[in-house]
Write a structure and sequence with these properties.
globular, Cry_DASH, Cryptochrome DASH, chromophore, 609 residues, five-stranded parallel β-sheet
């Protein structure tokens, strides 16, 4: 019997079977009469530098060899509860799909380069030949380091290494009208004009393979001191185990009665495809342009961003569904307004947002480590920022900001929703970022890192580029852009229903302007609501004036009494590469034996579509 000849595919943010060029190529070549390999090993690694993996230790007495996966500026857990759950579900969904093709998915924890090195060594000892190691290209400092480490491990073993083009985006890299990242325009509109018309830009979708090569007959186990779970539930439990349920907050938000999540979805390709089909049949794609600034509910925006971020679905798959609906090519959506009538304002707007995701990923390619530096892409050294790790007043303000007790209704509602559900809308993300960076003049990276920890749809390029954009250090052509959260509440939460959903202390109020600016309550109303002396009522972090009408500014009552109308304003070292074996995005490192403790053309798009 001949020795196994194995192809290893290291997955990262490409957790799908359909429209995946690697799986397509493996299926194609395995159908040939002479197979270049006999076995196929897809593998996913929970990366220790980005996700806390100490929950996978085989016993509580074991010590992880990796530093805690905490952020650079504030020391937050880099992957919080919501995203950890969604990620685990996505990995296991792909594992089930691959099993149905005759293959499978191995799960590991650690650093990608080390994991591949260990596998190559173990297969060599077992007289099994690894013919190649494949992985998909990703943008980011850590991601490039992973690619380098895996390539070096393969080269040391004399094994072929191939880095595939990342095809989860709207426009394929090979179709972008420039090759040098420096040629990317610094303004989105200029880039958009280079790649229009958008309806004709994407490549065709690759179909899902029905059969793939089997796993190797013998696969090396996860090295000590970690063990790999055998169910998705156990995986989620191990990812959650080391995380403080309150993520370090002394007074975290609690779930309000009758509040429901706007993002109750499960991870994985299966759920992502179901969501796309729902958006077609419900007509939500067609109405997207009119509803995308909504704050409550499931379908005001597409909510596809979580699946897009992990590569469970691709932008061009979304485009294909849009095309089929617009041209009436399939029965899906038949009878829905707009079916078979070509591109409409809603479907065009969805494509527009998908292009924003492309653009921000390309800015990461262009600017590299500058994505994480406080000076931003613009190398702004003139702005003055408050640093919570350096002064107590900034620390106090950041704590209230994170806990949703700033005293500005829209901001507090969003921060509470984010902590409790892992989601908050694009409109709110813009306001929150502007509030921290420009109203409070606090180090904008604190907000970017908190979003990284909390958001279920966190995407490196979209998150960090957007925070720079709103903070005024990124590629926003309007440097002085400031969101007024009181005016924005007046425009988008007219009756205060969103704020009252998450800020339960204000639910008894009927005057929206007091909901938007609770500090304008008169003493009688404070006493009635038992809010007298409450810090965020009495002492908001910022008193943002936005007055409408002759009676603006007066204290308001619960029963429609007169009240002020509500409205808004601005205000290190980045994550450089460290030395040694384990690298964060610039964090200084301590061994486990020393310490694992960390430190507590239009409006910007966070692209939560």
């Amino acid at each position: 019997m001949s020795s196994p000849r194995i192809l290893i595919y290291l997955l990262r943010r490409d957790l799908r079977l359909a429209d995946n060029p690697v799986f397509t190529e493996v299926a194609r070549t395995f159908q040939q009469s002479q197979h270049p390999y006999t076995h196929f090993l897809p593998i996913y690694v929970f990366a220790a530098q980005q996700i806390e993996v100490s929950g996978f230790l085989s016993s509580d007495s074991e010590i992880s060899p990796f530093p805690e996966a905490r952020s650079n500026a504030a020391g937050f857990w880099r992957c919080g509860h919501h995203r950890a759950k969604f990620l685990a579900e996505s990995v296991w969904d792909l594992k089930r799909s691959l099993h149905n093709t005759g293959s499978g998915l191995e799960i590991r924890v650690g650093l990608a380069g080390q994991v591949i090195q260990e596998l190559l060594n173990a297969f060599k000892k077992a007289s099994a030949e690894v013919v190649a190691v494949w992985m998909t290209d990703e943008e980011g400092v850590e991601e490039k380091r992973e690619e380098r480490d895996v390539k070096e491990a393969a080269e040391r073993a004399g094994t072929e290494f191939k880095l595939w083009t990342d095809e989860k985006y709207y426009i394929d890299d090979r179709d972008i009208p420039f090759r040098n990242p420096k040629d990317l325009p610094d303004v989105f509109t200029s880039y958009r004009k280079k790649v229009e018309p958008l309806r004709e830009a994407p490549r065709r979708v690759l179909r899902s393979p029905s059969k793939l090569p089997p796993l190797p007959p013998s696969i090396p186990s996860q090295p000590h001191p970690f063990t790999i779970p055998t169910t998705v539930e156990d995986t989620i439990a191990k990812l959650h185990k080391p995380l403080d349920p309150n993520l370090g907050l002394s007074n975290p938000p609690t779930w309000p009665t009758k509040a429901t999540s706007a993002h109750p979805f499960h991870g994985g390709e299966t759920a992502g495809q179901e969501r796309i089909r729902h958006l077609v049949t419900s007509g939500s794609f067609s109405t997207y342009k009119e509803t995308r600034n909504g704050l409550l509910g499931l379908d005001f925006s597409t909510k596809l961003s979580s699946w897009l971020a992990l590569g469970c679905i691709t932008a061009r798959q979304v485009h294909e569904f849009l095309l089929n609906f617009e041209d009436g090519k399939t029965d899906l959506g038949k009878g829905v307004h707009g079916y078979g009538k070509g591109e409409n304002k809603g479907t065009a707007a969805v494509r527009f947002e998908l292009l924003w995701r492309d653009y921000f990923r390309l800015t990461t390619r262009k600017f590299g480590p500058r994505l994480f530096r406080i000076e931003g892409f613009k190398n702004d050294t003139a702005s003055s920022w408050g640093y919570p790790q350096k002064d107590k007043e900034s620390q106090r303000r950041v704590t209230r900001f994170l806990e949703g007790t700033t005293g500005t209704g829209l901001i507090d509602g969003s921060m509470r929703e984010l902590f409790l559900t892992g989601y908050t809308s694009n409109r709110l993300r813009q306001n929150v970022a502007s509030f921290l960076a420009k109203h409070l003049a606090i180090d904008w990276r604190i907000g970017a890192e908190w979003y990284e920890s909390c958001l279920v749809d966190y995407d490196l390029s979209n998150n960090w580029s957007n925070w720079q954009y709103v903070a005024g250090v990124g590629n926003d052509p309007r440097e002085a852009r400031v969101f007024n959260p009181v005016k924005q509440a007046n425009d988008y939460d007219t009756q205060g229903n969103y704020i009252k959903t998450w800020v339960v202390e204000l639910r008894s109020l009927n005057e929206p302007q007091i909901v938007f600016q609770p500090w304008k309550m008169n003493d009688e109303l404070k006493a009635e609501l038992k809010l007298a002396g409450t810090e965020w009522i009495e002492q908001p972090l910022r008193r943002i004036e936005f007055n409408m009408g002759r009676n603006a500014g007066r204290g308001g009552g619960r029963d429609g009494g007169k009240g002020g109308k509500a409205g808004a304003s601005r205000g290190g070292a980045g994550r450089a590469e460290g030395g040694g074996g384990y690298h964060g995005r610039g964090r200084g490192e301590k061994s486990r034996g020393q310490s694992r403790k960390g430190k507590s053309d239009r409006a910007n798009e966070f692209v939560d579509n």
